[in-house]
Design a protein that fits this description.
The protein is mostly beta strands. It has a domain of about 70 residues. The chain is built from no helices and six strands. Strands 1, 2, 3, 4, 5 and 6 form a six-stranded mixed β-sheet that branches. Strand 2 and strand 3 form a beta hairpin. It is elongated and about 55 Å long. The protein starts with 7 loop residues before the first strand and ends in a 33-residue tail after the last strand. Bound molecules: zinc ion (ZN). Zinc ion binds next to loops.
């Protein structure tokens, strides 16, 4: 299953990519690259209420992807902006999705 643009959000690290937020089997949020990738280690599917779910294929007891699941890569594996930008240090501070900066003085 392929997410639509409507399902995507900007990368939280600000690299400019769109990501798909999924919920892991442990209930944690995980950002996934929105294009299926054979090299991925996450099986992604959409559950009944329409939530995107992911589960890791890395575990020794992980079963192979089911027919209704697609394989995706976690966005952290491809993100070009691993570090959150630090205030006061040059570089890529401005992103399209950055909130307005407040100056407390
Ligand atoms: Zn990113």
């Amino acid at each position: 299953m392929i997410p639509t643009q409507h399902d995507l959000d900007p990368c939280p690290a600000g690299c400019g990519a769109a990501v798909l937020w999924t919920t892991t089997e442990h209930g944690r949020p995980m950002a996934i690259d929105p294009t299926p990738d054979e090299r991925g280690n996450q099986a992604v599917y959409r559950d009944g209420p329409g939530r995107w779910r992911s589960r890791s294929l890395d575990g020794a007891d992980a079963r192979p992807p089911d027919p209704w699941e697609s394989t995706y890569r976690p966005h952290v594996a491809t993100c070009t902006n691993h570090q959150p930008p630090l205030p006061g240090i040059g570089g890529r501070r401005r992103t399209r999705h950055a909130p307005p900066r407040r100056v407390w003085r």
